[in-house]
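Q: Sequence in, structure out?
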Amino acid sequence: MSDSKPQPPRRPGSSGGFDGSDGDGSTALLLSGARLTDGRTVDVRLSEGRIEAVGTAGSLPSHRASRVDLAGFLLLPAPVEPHAHGDTALTADTSGPVSYAGQDVQRRATDAALLQLGHGATAQRAHVRIGDVQGLGPMEAVLQARRALRGLVDLSTVAVPRLLTGVAGADGLAMLRDAVKMGASVVGGSPDADPDPAGYVERVLEVAAEHGCPVDLHTDGDDPARLARLAAMAGGLRSGVAIGPCGGLARLPLEVATRAAGQLAAAGVSVVCQPQGGCGGVDQRGVAPVRLLRAAGVRLAAGSGALRDAANPVGRGDPLEAAYLLASQSGMRAQHAYDAVAAVAREAMGLPEVRLEAGFPAELVALRGDRLSGVLSLAYSRIVVHRGRVVARTSAVREYCDSVAAGDADLELPRQGRGAGGGTVE
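A: Exactly. Output:
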């Protein structure tokens, strides 16, 4: 499949626009013949950004709605990306120092968001470093990208200062407040890197309480006393607290890690693990003990982390890959693994719930396949719906050449779609 910059394709022979409209501004859309995880085949009508009706296949009239044939696709609530780094994304192959000029950061953040949208993530949370030489420049650039992408993807930003305590931290604290005034919707950072981690957390929570913002912190989670203090301080913040990737929890003794997980659960703190690897916010690698956290009642989400930057030069930014790794390496059931990048991740980000039922937001993804375990294993072809319209399509065709075995007329290779030339649509 191509790795070029995403383009807005149009299918040959389609009378409707790429976004699901009829070309006259109508936002009604009928998704026909889709399979659900419970085995039903249904039609789903969307209108005004929400699911208007769900019925058995063929039962819903279009009412002038544009129609998308989803025969052969599994329809799911769209995943989200709770932990991205748009300002540093796509820099792994840069020769020389990475440019933080505004237009370069905006381009990287835009390209990264579109790549993740193509994977299905209709809402994304980007952690953006502020302070030092760059000041608030990267934040302004990512906010510009957010404005440019409006209607395609919901992009929220986390302000990530380096230091917040002591003399050196005074500027960082002022800059954190300025970032929120600029439009940063979440406050965060890496308390592990500050000489006074507890003081760092206190200041982040103070700014969050002042502005009614959620909190999202980078931490390795290898210090149980620090986690206990964080849980005690975070319990009263109504806007929500998330931490991650918490790979250090897996290195603690079982009894200690279990106690820490219980404290996080009691405080309502979400943990965003990163099955694909670490990111620039922490030095250690490793995946949080996901089964232990879930057993303790912690709200466990999964994010992609680095997208082809120095921390992970081959990062894909694909929520389905995160779910796949949770299922294949951490032993989670396919449904629970997908929930970690969809329903639970939405909750951790403070987003409305999505169900395949009338009245819920039309944030959906259709994946070539008929079972959840199958699409987590291999699902290249995807159709992404945001606010009730199709905003991204990815189609993959696998083809096989003829057998070289002479006279073996009984051998028939798989052929599907695309006329006589064959090919298997994934």
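Residues 102-119 form the longest helix (18 residues).
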